[in-house]
Design goal:
Elements: E1 2-7, E2 13-18, E3 24-31, H1 45-52, H2 62-71, E4 75-80, E5 85-92, H3 96-108, H4 114-132, H5 135-147, H6 161-165, H7 169-179, E6 185-191, H8 195-205, E7 225-230, E8 236-243, H9 252-263, H10 269-277, E9 284-291, E10 294-303, H11 308-325, H12 328-344, H13 349-363, H14 369-377, H15 381-391, E11 397-402, H16 410-416
Parallel strand pairs: 2-6, 7-11
Antiparallel strand pairs: 1-2, 3-5, 3-6, 4-5, 8-10, 8-11, 9-10
Amino acid sequence: MTIRSTVLPGGLTVLSDEMPTVESASVGVWVRAGARDERPEQNGIAHLLEHMAFKGTARRSPRAIAEEIEAVGGHLNAFTSREQTAYYARVLADDVPLAVDLLADILQHSTLDADELAREREVVVQEIGQAHDTPDDIVFDHFQAVAYPDQAMGRPVLGTAETVRAMDRDTVGAYLARHYRGTRMILAAAGRVEHDALVELAGAAFEALPPGEAGEIEPAIYKGGEAREARELEQLHLVLGFPGFAFEDEDYYALSVFSTLYGGGMSSRLFQEVREERGLAYSIYSFHSSYTDGGLFGVYAGTSGSDAEELLDVIARESATLAQTVSEEEIARARAQIKAGVLMALESSWARCERLANHLISFGRIVPIEEMVRRIDAVDADSVARTARRLFSGRPTVAAVGPVDGLESYDRIARRFG
């Protein structure tokens, strides 16, 4: 791999990963700003701004933006998370200049037209309603809110109907001006791209980008607790979790291995015992979300209300016994799964583009593939046991949507892991 990095005078970092054997390229701009950079009354503004970026600039109408990228067979999209917002394009190699120009235009010269904003607010409200109507989606918002109560990290990425409808053009414009600055942004590209040419394109296209930082973010302080929402559903959607690890934690890779063998695949402990042996759930899996200053680890399951107690028995027993009973065969299988995912992603220009930006934001550097593989291979039974002890020593977070009447009390659930 040929990975190169250049910082432009205005602070924008340009990253490239050249793949000379492909005919296309993925190009994106990552902004170090997301849901956790919002004040309470602004909840959802990062996501709304992501929508508004495609609603017209001084040079292009919303239709022109869509037509220009599709006229070359390309794809333009964006997403918002808790710590970042990304805008990206996938194009043929000859159309990289167009992709850079489009991204620069929508991020620096959006008109934030009042009529477009009014329409898009309602589109986002519809998106919020759709999420609320999806129990296996909204349960994660409840989980996040209880894990980080009364904090930006605990509020939903989409915001609420009330906060979104209250946002006017000045509010959205002020957020953009505060956070969309050179030192907080990364232009990353992978595929058939040449670094020096990319730097030249970026320097010309992003000349209007203001320099400077936006200030400190609110720290994430895990609390834990429970949230229960009674609904007339066939299944109880349950998320049970604990404080996880930050990106730079010494056990970050051990947590990846632990999560994989605990509930990360069809051969995992939870899948085999909960689904294959007992038939208690169709869907069950563990997950971990790392942040710059913390993280969350949890288990999701969809089960019947009458099976919830037995399901919790299995989850608690496996969490307690895994550290003492884990085999080298299990660890080797989990390591192989993770390494395969890392190495297979090298075949995708989009995955490599995303990796560049995410690594710089999360780790402050591009972690070499060889180092990642080495650290994954270094995970052994002792580090898995240490990870288990660290994870399940905290105060649990429980979120449930559906027939919650039969779900045991929070204190009893907590005692299972005490």
